[in-house]
# Entry
Amino acid sequence: MAKSMKKMLLLAKKEVTAGTDALPTAAANAILCRALMPEPITAEQVQRNLIRPYKGNSGSLTVGEHRKITFEVELAGAGAAGTEPVWGLLLEACGFAATITAGTDVTYDLVSEGEPTLTLYGYLDKTKFVITNAKGTVSFELNAKGIPVMKFEFLGTYSAATEEVAMPTGVDYSDFIQPKTVGKTNTPTFSFHGLSACMSAFSINLANALAWRELVNCAAPHSPDRQPSGSVTMEMPSITTKNWAEIVRNSVVGACSLVHGTVPGNIIELAMPAVQCKPFTLQDDQSIAMINMPFDINPVDGNDELQIIVR
# Structure
């Protein structure tokens, strides 16, 4: 019987002990997402390379089996200032730590060790994919006239799907609130190297290095580094306002800040103190000259290259 890609569900819960199933439930741990795509198995193939008196494949053996899952979550607040958004645990498993100031905000700062692992259950029309010991990376996309999203990728331990299961009931998405589209009204602040630029597209990628590491007595996802970067498309100003070519040529570093949302409980700020621009290209948008600028996101004192504030 064919499987329906409409009948899908994602559950996520922090693990107390890395690699031990945290047993997420539909009532308490459902993630409202889109573009959900679990990989049934991710692995390497080792070729046998046998010598025989005829041509043909020698066959291969599967090694390092694990599981990957990707999905997108709308970027919106928690509904009340100082309350951790339901998607916060996903950020933490991507290398952030949350600081909660009751009634004010929740701040996510990067860490270089000690991030939690998750148990993820992915359901595809009664087929259940379990991923334990999951670590991830995330990118953000905020484009004018679009819905802001976080794009996640997680690696974790493989377990065989042995039977079909009933789709969970009692799924609760009530902690997710409706996002606001990106634009002049809902995105009141965008500053790039001190310029309040007219921006049409903005993205940043945390770029955690993710790999499955398997040795004797050891098998787990490994994230040894991150190299955050991004891209912005914005109107080209006059040279006297901002000479972007000279900024690139002189390797100038500047801050970037984007605030999305205007109502407490649904405001998210992305703050980067040290953005370094790279060679860019020009685009034509309705006969307006646009700059498509890639950039690196650098730390200043360490673990401070990207801060996410939810108010």
About this structure: The longest strand covers residues 127-143. Helices lie at 26-29, 88-92, 244-249. Residues 244-249 form the longest helix (6 residues).
